[in-house]
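Review the following:
>
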Amino acid sequence: MEIGFAKSAQSTLGVEWELALVDRTTGELVSVADEVLRGVSAAHPGIGEDDEHPHIKQELLENTVELVTGVCNTVAEAKADLNRSLEALRRVTDPMGVELFCSGSHPFSAPRSQPITDKERYAKLIDRTQWWGQQMLIYGVHVHVGLDSRDKALPVLDGLVNYFPHFQALSASSPYWSGEDTGYASQRALMFQQLPTAGLPFQFASWAEYESYVQDMFTTGVIDSISEIRWDIRPVPNLGTVEMRVCDGMATIEDVGAVAALTQCLVEEFSTILDNGGTIPTMPPWHVQENKWRAARYGLDAIIILDAAGNEKLVTDHLLEDVLPRLAPVAEKLGCTKELADVRAIIERGAGYQRQRRIAAENGGDLRAVVQDGIRQLRGEG
């Protein structure tokens, strides 16, 4: 099987942001995505047809909508695109008494009671995965970065895998599941990997090896479409991008911009290394797997494995002392210095899971207060 890789300008950007629809008063999820999208389409007949119109999509659950940017050159441009979509969405949801909320999971709504979007591919997924598929009450942020050569896709993917725990720790925002504190910073990370072909990506020495893997998945009936390979980080051949799908849902556009900037800067750095004839170091899969678990469990308090030699460091120290200073010139080149600095802001004020636990404690364990706080954050009021 030959898999082509679309032409894409190096380090261009696209962002996907999944949002929950909740009742303004109770904070419960409401399954009104069809009605919301009809309202948006009526107000914007050209929706999704070009970059001038907001792009708002359906997702697996009827309580979810996804904002998708066009192809952007800078993180600021992507944030502006998301803001336009958000404004278009609110013009429909506000009169309905529906609020927007984003974290890795909903703190208290029951996963199995949520209606599925009426599409064949979603019905097939649930039929195949049964109980696990019915648990997918999760929300995430995905960042696409363009690559100017197919040969960069797998080395860049391997490079991003080294930073899996950094992205997970910064974005972790799903400590609660069905009303219970799981003890994890990110329940979403461990839940999503239960789906077939989800979880950490495999490491391939060549594009031909990747093509062989995809062929095997088709031959054995594991997938019907290459998009059903749901790795946490994956190449997207039809777009000419690598897609970072690690992050839990994040409550504000500023936080989304921070992880987008970190992704874009790392990909640009890796691309330059490859252009200069260098190689990108990898870690053994068992180190990568351990890092994922540590970041999901401990979030910003995770001590992570840095390299194949087994050296370790607190994830926040590695970001503040090594990663952000090293990427500063890259950010300046890409025009995302402000957004990369927002990574430091997340570390200084705490990640989503920390805020949720604090709000719950301040309100006697009432998780409705957690949702209301998230609503205010997304409105820029908290």
Remarks:
- The chain has a mean pLDDT of 93.
- The chain has 13 helices and eleven strands.
- Residues 258 and 343 are 5 Å apart (CA to CA).
- The first strand starts at residue 13 and ends at 23.
